[in-house]
From TrEMBL:
Superkingdom as given in the UniProt entry: Bacteria
The protein's name: Molybdopterin molybdenumtransferase
GO CC annotations on file: cytosol
Pathway in which this enzyme or protein is active: Cofactor biosynthesis; molybdopterin biosynthesis
Keywords: Magnesium, Metal-binding, Molybdenum, Molybdenum cofactor biosynthesis, Transferase
Role played: Catalyzes the insertion of molybdate into adenylated molybdopterin with the concomitant release of AMP.
Family: Belongs to the MoeA family.
Keyword check for Signal: no
Enzyme Commission number, as recorded: 2.10.1.1
CDD domains recorded: MoeA (cd00887)
GO biological process: Mo-molybdopterin cofactor biosynthetic process
Length: 411
């Protein structure tokens, strides 16, 4: 273990490259569009229909020929949304409601507030342009175009777009199956009273929620005793069920830290000890799987340190892109970056610091406020964080400097 401790720290980029190297997208499955919220499209969806399907009115008012504006026009028909209009009789207008189909012959709609009702019909002001208040057929979507690209996360607007085409079934990527292991004999689940030296498992619900928001399904969430053989056995079981095995704790240098050694015995340790804070002892590797389901016969392994903030940051930096690769979703693969003015001063040494910050969007631009206590055991710094400020190695940041931040958006 002495040699391990002298191992040079690896960069986050090298770690991400090793983690994502050779990861293949998971297979596709067809599911009902009504169940597809949060899922990722496995193939592009082509538009089948024009949306809207016909020219229609954007206002409650009167449809007419623009050239016939500036006079009193009798009302020759009434068109509610959903009705089929008749061709517009010359020298007349049609009463029309928002969403109503424009009658053949009409080329504009005048909103009702602009006309004056009279015994003969309505007095329409002059100066009306053709096209006014008409939503043209296909303005939103034209049949045959790519409606949504593969890799789209099906969130609210995309689900609406699918429904707008009458689509009831979609091909989505199978959800990545993740096994979540908690190490540490001192860690117990809420629901039991705390004994001496014990603490509650904060990492499990936190990581489960993050993984789910990154598109995964947590298929196993168990605690592993601080014992080498038991750790090996649990890792074996986990790898057989999952595309990714995520553990917390047990990756540092103490005698009770078995995860890294178990990984070395069963599979392959790609990287350990990273130039990042928090998360230095993070371990990345692969575990062989005894069962195959059409996917590569190995599960990726991410051993997060036990400190809750190290788990939180590690999830955003490693688990989100890993889920992105398994789901073939470019949007998940990379967190959006932004530049903000730092309201704090700090300095770094050999590790890049991912500081939890709160962003303030003001008239003068974006400010990043760091939480006071940035220790990796202080989870309160994450609760209201909406970005990670990325402070490069060996740097000195002064208040007012522009810093790079990663915006913590879930998908
Ligand atoms: N001699 C050294 N000691 C440590 C080093 C080092 O380089 N040399 N690195 C430190 C750093 S940095 C970190 S981070 C931690 C990581 O240690 P482990 O991953 O082995 O994690 P544990 O020791 O198991 O736990 C650390 C800490 O977190 C608490 N914990 C663990 N699991 C949970 C959980 N599910 N919910 C809540 N809290 C949890 C645990 O009780 C410990 O307090 O190592 C440093 N040590
Ligand atoms: O890497 Mo540890 O997470 O700095 O505390």
């Amino acid at each position: 273990m002495g040699n391990d401790q002298r191992t040079e720290l690896q960069s986050v980029e090298a770690a991400l490259e090793a983690l994502l190297d050779g990861v293949l997208p998971l297979g596709a499955e067809r599911i009902s569009a009504s169940e597809a919220a949060g899922r990722v499209l496995a193939a592009e969806v082509q538009a089948l229909l024009d949306v809207p399907p016909a020219d229609n009115s954007a206002m409650d008012g009167y449809a007419l020929r623009a050239a016939e504006a500036g006079q009193v026009l009798p009302i020759s028909q009434r068109i509610a949304a959903g009705a089929s209009p008749q061709p517009l009789a010359p020298g007349s207008c049609a009463r029309i409601f928002t969403g109503g189909e424009i009658p053949p012959g009409a080329d504009c709609v005048v909103m009702q507030e602009k006309v004056e009702e009279c015994a003969e019909g309505v007095r329409v002001p002059g100066g009306i342009e053709p096209g006014n208040n008409i939503r043209a057929r296909g303005r939103d979507v034209r049949a045959g175009i790519r409606l949504l690209p593969a890799g789209t996360c099906l969130e609210a607007a995309a689900l609406g777009h699918l429904a707008g085409q009458g689509i009831t079934e979609v091909a989505v990527r199978r959800r990545p199956r993740v096994a979540l292991l908690s190490t540490g004999d001192e860690i117990i689940d809420p629901g039991r009273p705390l004994g001496p030296g014990q603490i509650y498992n904060t990492n499990r619900p936190m990581l489960k929620r993050l993984l789910e928001r990154f598109g995964a399904e947590v298929v196993m969430a168990i605690s592993v005793p601080d014992d080498f053989e038991a750790t090996c056995e649990t890792l074996r079981q986990a790898a057989d069920q999952a595309d990714a095995v995520v553990s917390t704790g047990g990756v540092s240098v103490g005698e009770e830290d078995h995860v890294k050694h178990a990984l070395e015995r069963l599979g392959r340790l790609d990287l350990w000890r990273l130039a990042m804070r928090p998360g230095k002892p993070l371990a990345l590797g692969r575990l062989p799987r005894s069962t195959r389901d059409g996917h590569a016969g190995e599960a990726r392994f991410v051993g997060l340190p036990g400190n809750p903030v190290s788990g939180f940051v590690g999830a955003w930096i490693y688990l989100r892109p890993l889920m992105g690769a398994l789901l073939d979703s470019p949007r998940l693969a990379r967190l959006p970056g932004l530049r903000a003015r730092s309201t704090f001063a700090t300095s770094t040494q050999a590790r890049r610091h991912y500081m939890r910050v709160k962003l303030e969007f003001g008239a003068e631009g974006i400010s990043a406020h760091a939480f006071d206590d940035q220790n990796s055991a202080v989870l309160s710094s994450c609760v209201e964080a909406d970005a990670l400020a990325v402070i490069p190695v060996h740097s000195e940041i002064r208040q007012g400097d522009i810093i790079e931040c990663l915006w913590l958006v879930e998908n």
